[in-house]
Amino acid sequence: MTSFLPSHPGGSKIILQLAGQDATEEYDPIHPPGTLEDNLSPSCNLGQLDPDTIPKPSADVVEKQQEDKDAPVDLENLLNLDEIEEVATKKISKKCWAYYFSASDDLFSKSFNGSVYRQILLRPRVFVDCTKVDTSISMFGQHKLGTPLYVSPAAMARLAHPDGERGIAQGISSFGALQIVSHNASMTPEQIIEGAIPGQIFGWQLYVQQERKKSEAMLARINKMKEHYKFIVLTLDAPVPGKREHDEKAKDIGAHLPLTSGTKDGKTRPGGGGVGQQLFWGTAADLTWKTTLPWLAKHTDLPIVLKGIQTHEDAYLAAQFAPQVKAIILSNHGGR
Fold first, then answer.
1. Catalytic one among 31, 246, 299, 333?
2. What does pTM read for this prediction?
3. From 99, 100, 207, 229, active-site residue
4. Which listed residue (237, 246, 299, 314) is catalytic?
5. What is the pLDDT of residues 46-68, one digit of tens each?
6. pLDDT, tens digit (0-9, with 9 covering 90-100), for 273-292
7. Is 333 considered catalytic here?
8. Can you tell me the distance from the alpha carbon of 311 to that of 331, in angstroms, rounded to the nearest whole number?
């Protein structure tokens, strides 16, 4: 790994603190298959690891870990999302919890999101025939969905479960629900739609990279899977990595290390700043209305959805770019 250290998007210290160890459990849930092959030359493969040479944890530790992992969960008694989150928090790793739970700084924006959402009240109408309920909707006037609820793009599903994003796709298929796949998914876009039922709809989230050729290559891949990927979600509310304190403090991702770890071409790379800092390295911060949408039009004819609109002024501007821009998602990136 020595020659690759300066180029690692997550910084060198994340790798160095795992030197001489089996890094599979750290690496595997975060990186889609093919990442090593795409970024390292074959000469970097020095040989095969003999599992018998890896230090084994004590039998008591292994037994306790297995008990915790295998402890049954009575899903029928989990009646709301808060209860599901409470149980899941005990099942997943500290790193996983810190990344999923974290938002910016002191979590004010995240908690305020919840407060504002709870102020939205329903106005029930009566004397309506409730035997004929249809929750299906039409998206873009073209695609029928079974429910107006969708899975928003969230990175690295395999941190929580080995089935990852493909498991989510299979789980929601019976509802005819929409899944937007994260740019930082822990599986490839091809893997995620494997086994998808005919007509199942996906969107692909795009973080435009500083090296535009990387984004153009990904768009070319998505263009070949139009049977399922029906639109591109261009994320605009995260031009730079957020400061996520819970993520940074997670012990097993190097919170004791400095926030930066080396530079390349005069650019500081993230170090112990948590998973979020690592994922966002390389994201372009120079997107504009006048340059980015015409660039996208050269590389895909799929409809564009703009994610991260937070003001009516930007909603109005987005409308001026129809029909290329088909929809907007109101978002402040989960309070990040």
1. 333
2. 0.78
3. 207
4. 237
5. 888 887 887 776 776 666 666 66
6. 566 666 666 788 999 999 99
7. yes
8. 10
